[in-house]
């Protein structure tokens, strides 16, 4: 892979990881709810899940979704149902004391979430189709995966950290409820581009 392709991919991967989307909305909400340290397993789970998804798409799984429209529709339905369930969890979340607060997701649920996250699928399929040279070996795919982790994890940490930083602004149960309603609405709205694509 050329230096130019690697540089372009790094920018693409960072923008994909740092821009608002389901992972980042949930990281922000989890950082507010449980704090930065307790949200770290979720961050690491996102990184593992995304890395394995990217590896599988690069190894050929992405072709399934390009060739079998029913698989795309099934993923959209499953992802939509899961996103709406998560939005409902945010809407119905009760305010808890700081020592009782738990993150919205843990390591394994954060990893598994990537497999129903249409934005993650879109980023992986786009990355493989644009930045993985045709006929390249596992070394090029491994480089894409490692770079995705290297630029994605800091972006995810920043969203969790932003949540931690906002905790004192959203300390009252009323403000937390309002914030959760906004995050739930954004999470639900993040489904719309999936159905329009």
Structure description:
The protein is mostly helical and 197 residues long. The chain has one domain. Helix content is 80%, strand content 0%. The chain contains 9 helices and no strands. Helix 2 packs across helix 7 (138-166). The longest helix has 32 residues, at 36-67. It starts with a helix and ends with a helix. The mean pLDDT is 86.
How much helicity do the residues have?
A: over 70%
Binned strand content: under 5%
Point out poorly predicted stretches: none
Specify Rg, calculated over alpha carbons: 17 Å
Number of strands: 0
Backbone structural class: mainly alpha
Global outline = globular
String of helices and strands: HHHHHHHHH
- Domain count: the total is 1
User: Separation of termini?
Assistant: 29 Å
Biggest sheet descriptor:
none
Summed over residues and divided by their number, the pLDDT gives a mean of: 86
How large is the count of helical segments?
9
Element layout with pairings:
Blueprint: H1 3-18, H2 22-34, H3 36-67, H4 69-92, H5 107-113, H6 118-131, H7 138-166, H8 173-189, H9 192-196
Helix pairs in contact: 1-6, 1-7, 2-3, 2-7, 2-8, 3-4, 3-5, 3-6, 3-7, 4-8
List its traits.
single chain; 197 residues; mainly alpha; 9 helices
Short structural summary:
This protein is an all-alpha fold and 197 residues long.
């Amino acid at each position: 892979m050329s230096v130019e392709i690697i540089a372009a991919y790094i920018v693409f991967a960072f923008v994909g990881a740092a821009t608002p989307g389901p992972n980042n909305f949930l990281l922000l909400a989890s950082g507010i709810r449980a704090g930065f340290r307790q949200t770290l397993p979720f961050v690491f789970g996102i990184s593992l899940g995304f890395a394995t998804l990217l590896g599988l798409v690069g190894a050929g799984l992405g072709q399934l979704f390009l060739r079998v429209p029913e698989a795309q529709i099934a993923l959209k339905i499953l992802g939509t149902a899961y996103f709406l369930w998560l939005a409902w969890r945010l809407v119905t979340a009760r305010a808890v004391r700081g020592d009782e607060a738990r993150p919205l997701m843990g390591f394994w649920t954060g990893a598994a979430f990537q497999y129903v996250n249409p934005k993650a699928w879109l980023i992986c399929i786009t990355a493989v189709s644009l930045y993985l040279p045709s006929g390249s070996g596992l070394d090029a795919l491994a480089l894409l995966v490692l770079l995705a982790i290297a630029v994605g994890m800091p972006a995810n940490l920043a969203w969790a950290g932003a949540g931690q930083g906002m905790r004192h602004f959203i300390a009252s149960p009323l403000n937390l409820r309002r914030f959760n309603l906004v995050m739930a609405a954004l999470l639900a709205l993040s489904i719309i581009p999936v159905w329009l694509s």
